[in-house]
Amino acid sequence: MNRAEAEKNIARLREEIRKHDRLYYEEAAPVVTDREYDRLYKDLVDLETQFPDLLTADSPTQRVGGQPLTAFAQIRHRAPMLSLDNTYSEEELANFYKRITRLLPDEKIPVVIEPKVDGVAVSVMYENGRLKYAATRGDGVVGDDITQNIKTIRSVPQQLRGDAPDVFEVRGEAYLDKAGFEKLNQDRKAAGLPLFANPRNAAAGSLKHLDPKAVAKRPLGIVFYGTGAVEGADVDLHSKVFRLFKKLGLPTHEHWWAAESVEEILSAIRKLDEIRGNFPYQTDGAVIKVDEFAQRERLGFTAKAPRWAIAYKYAAERVETRLQDIMIQVGRTGILTPVAALDPVLVSGSTVARATLHNEDEIKRKDIRIADTVVIEKAGEVIPAVVEVVKSKRPRDTKPFDFAKHVHGKCPVCGGPIRRDPEFVAWRCENLYCPAQTTRRVEFFAARGALDIESIGGIVADKLVERGLVREPLDLFDLRAEQLAKLNLGSEEAPRVFGEKNATKAINAIERARTLPLSRWLFALAIPDVGKTTATELARFHDTVEDVADSELLREVLYYHEKRGDKEVAREIAERLIKSGFAKPSQSKAGKDGIVTEVGPVVAQSVLDFFRSPSGRKILRRLNELGIKPKSEKVSAKKAAELPLAGKTFVLTGTLPSMTREEATEKIEALGGHVTGSVSKKTDYVLAGAEPGSKFDKAKELGVKIIDEAEFRKMT
User: Which of 116, 208, 304, 695 is catalytic?
Assistant: First the structure.
């Protein structure tokens, strides 16, 4: 692999890992197994090792995943909560021990082996023996304040027993016990609520519940396994920590092993595997830690993890079954997701008839075909996934799966066009008015480049649709502050309300949107073929939305192209369009005697068709009912030509010191300029900020003038 290919793959892996980190740490809703995540992570580590100059400080390999939720106050950990490197291989585990013995030659290095609880990492601070606060891991430095919820766990003492250290920061895993998890899901099923995927998700949802009374009803437990900041205690061995925890009344591991060789380590993890099924909590592996704290200090840390510890994960249960069909689901954001329909099979204690296939690339990579015998994995009770195909059992008449052909090149819900979206490595329905993707329409409508309605996006838009408060974007203008304040962004069992402060901000932004200019509204309505630049051009030549809907100029554009064969008629239409400023004479030899219009016939037809459609007519009617009349940006051709940036084409790259790209774009367009996405010989200026991309290099290559924000401001 050359450097260019490595750079591309590293960017792809980082984006995918960040997405999975967000789903796992912040939303407690993973879509891949631990093994699949670890494979992606290892691929990234290998590439960054091979190409060290491509390693950056913001790489997922250089930090702990997860961001604190804004609904909670934040707490800074006295000592960082780092995650561990992990492996599924006994050989790699042996190499770990050999590596630390090489780092500390001529020393005996005792290690401790303990269960890896599949729960939620927490830190609990005791001062003078009394519980001070509790926090989630968060990003490893700052976590969410979950003190009130931790206090509902009966096994967590409010006051430590005996002679407690002055400062005692203890680390542990909060979990939902297996029996409690089964009962919780039974109750949710009876109530018609979505089921938790696994006990870890249920525990995470519980700890993020804003009502401690509801948390208290959950059978949560905790296992403490280590310390953070400690003052007033002389502890030099990890093995002594377990005894100290018991003395102070802190729940800790009942089973752990000491070892001083690879053979003893492997023997311990095998013994743990034999008994872990009897534990009340879910386990997915073992943690191996150097026992002596002094040795730990000399071994030190990498940017992300300690060199003195590693997690060994047990292989997940896998079973074979037949893949009956591949179904395509359309999400509320328009992404088409393939799902495997299976012959029902028992795996990890439950019957599985569906499994995720993630996306088209995964199907191609694993060469999954309808009628194949496939291996299903449900690691840690996570959403089941197809791991691999049993090629030896493949029927002779199977064919490679063709995603686009399978759906006949159309959205299976609305029949609209679909497009391969490289950002999400997936196919997306292009029709914003597809019944399946209300959320996407709302997000587009409220986006910064459209109506800039603060706080309405992502999970908020999703929940507004899910709770039935919004069925189409204009419904946002019917929302009341009290409705938004009570909006539950979590689940029924683990609610997380939007809150009065956020609701007030959102309502104020919705009210501001009423007065935004016509161009922003034309873009926000998601009219096919109308981007931001086209919306700006249309707004310059029309007074109102109604004028655009019944535009004589757009009809003239269509009429001109229809009558191109009749030179006399075409000339008369051209003269009218030029006089209005909506067209200018063509400068090309091929278009001699022709004109160039502000928008072409395709856009003109699309706009007129949109407002003639039932949904377009409904939008006009709703705008009138809501009293929304976007302000005109109509200017004369003469005035447009006098604007300071008239006729100038800009390309933006990098991060500007004091304005966003959207703000810069708006300023350029308001002053008569145009913004395009790529650099060419016709580009007048490249406006560059910090860390510019390939557009900067292209501009230098073509000799296009490059300016910074200071120069740009002088021009305006």
Answer: 116
